[in-house]
Amino acid sequence: MRALARPATGRPRGDPILFTNDLFVLALAMAAHLAFVILLLLTRREPRKDHSLAIAAFLGIVLATALADMTDVMYAIGVWTLPGPNHLVAVMTPLLLLEGPALYFYARALASKEPLRLGRGDLLHLAPYALLQAVTLLLYGLALPGQSGDPALQDFGATLVTQGSLPAERLLTLLAYLPVMTAYVVLAIRELSRHERQKLDYFSNLEGSSLRWLHWNIPLMGLSWGVNLVLLADDLLFDALHPSPLVSLLIFAAWVYPLSFMALWQQPIYVPTRRSPALEAAIATETPVLPAVLAVAAPAGGGAEPRYQRSALDGERMKRIAAKIERTMAQDRLYRNHALNLRNLSDHLKVSENYLSQVLNDYIGSNFYEYVNRWRIREACELLSRTSARIIDIGEDVGFNSRSTFNAAFRKETGQTPSDYRAAVARGDDGAPAPVLDPAIPPAIPFPDRPVPL
């Protein structure tokens, strides 16, 4: 983006430090890194590819515009001489307006339970780029030598794309880029925030489901763009800083390298699984037909939009599904599977995920994550009371992945650590606080020794 401030011909304003051979090699190394990351993203095997394709598209746009900037620098300092304006920039610079949509689709793909499939409506995201590209090509078309038409019009077009501290097509790109990128950053953050809420309704263990790294990387990208804007404003108005091209390279590297490495590390969060036709038919049988008109109750607290507006579940059906959930947890101990998620429970009970989520949230009063962990803590309390097994082994047996997660969940539900609870039980301390378990869980359901049928 720094290159937007450079004129398309002649030397940059003032007398800034120009690209040296070493800096040019460094820039090429960064471009090679991006190309290699894109290749890995496109070729690696994954259960779903939509998020990798989206971030590969984003990095590809970054690479294309960076290469255009590099050729523009060579053109500006006389290393690369061509008649007329730098036509590569005419094609590449408007691609900046596709960075926002690509980033948004990446966040959307990571937050979607099903693989992302773009529809006709998504083509609207290309509209800002298409409009700017058409205007840019029109300006450059006017500036091409040897074109038939009014010579005065050709001279005017050449002036627009070659003269001034910020040629017209660069100014258009800059003015369009700021609001477009801001809008898509907001949309991306909204998708990530939705995922933070949604994951509690789907997973019983949250390890590997966090996207906080992307939450942090997006502001880092915004900061780097902000610094570039400061440099651009100085180049246009004051010409006082004269920053080295190394500054631009370091700013570029500050967000590109973390993003590219984390994109390679990031695996799909929601892994699609295929259901057999028989299972699909069984779930469909359990799912009532949605009436044409539904009366939707107002949400508690008022004002907010109801969460399950189009649900056909009535109170009696909710009660029956809740009983099935409680019975299967008590008898089959599904919670012992540390990878248990809402899809697994849906397949086991032959009830749709939406209905299970609604029953858990509206009837039982817990999201899936809290509900399953309460069952885990309940059995952990029994094992801590009547066995001498190690705490870490008990945590793993009841479905926790790590001792830290077990301790945090246990303290949240009981107000004590597992070791404190065991010590209180061993002392027979009548004053020791008892485990605080959700009243929706029946207190007297036995734990038979049966395998977990998953």
From TrEMBL:
> Which keywords does this chain's UniProt record carry?
DNA-binding, Membrane, Transcription, Transcription regulation, Transmembrane, Transmembrane helix
Pfam families linked: HTH_18
Record has Transmembrane as a keyword: yes
Question: What domain of life does the native source organism fall in?
Answer: Bacteria
Residue span, HTH araC/xylS-type domain: 319-424
MF-aspect GO terms:
DNA-binding transcription factor activity; sequence-specific DNA binding
Task: Answer whether the UniProt record assigns the keyword Transcription regulation to this protein.
Answer: yes
Task: Give the transmembrane ranges.
Answer: 23-42, 54-77, 89-111, 123-143, 174-192, 213-233, 245-265
Protein name as catalogued = Helix-turn-helix domain-containing protein
